[in-house]
Design a protein that fits this description.
This protein is α+β, with helices and mostly antiparallel strands. It is built from three helices and three strands. It has one domain: Winged helix-like DNA-binding domain superfamily/Winged helix DNA-binding domain (Arc Repressor Mutant, subunit A). A three-stranded antiparallel sheet has the order 1-3-2.
């Protein structure tokens, strides 16, 4: 997550809050953040890197769950 600018950081926080409420469809996320699908997937990868379990459902809904066993 090196080189993160302020706008990206704000979008990541907004995405975290959105996905912790309940799983959301990929298109809902992209519209909410005003970013591309590719950018959304990058953001989800950022959460994996810091220890969140990214839950992907069959219908392209994504949610977050903090993995408390990950010590990285």
């Amino acid at each position: 997550m090196e080189g993160m600018n302020q706008h990206r950081f704000v979008r990541l926080i907004k995405l975290m809050q959105l996905l912790e409420e309940r799983p959301r469809h990929l298109h809902t996320i992209t519209r909410y953040l005003n970013v591309s699908e590719r950018t959304t997937y990058r953001y989800l990868e950022c959460f994996r890197e810091i220890g969140y379990e990214v839950i992907k459902q069959k219908d392209l809904r994504f949610g977050l769950k903090k993995d408390l066993t990950n010590t990285n």
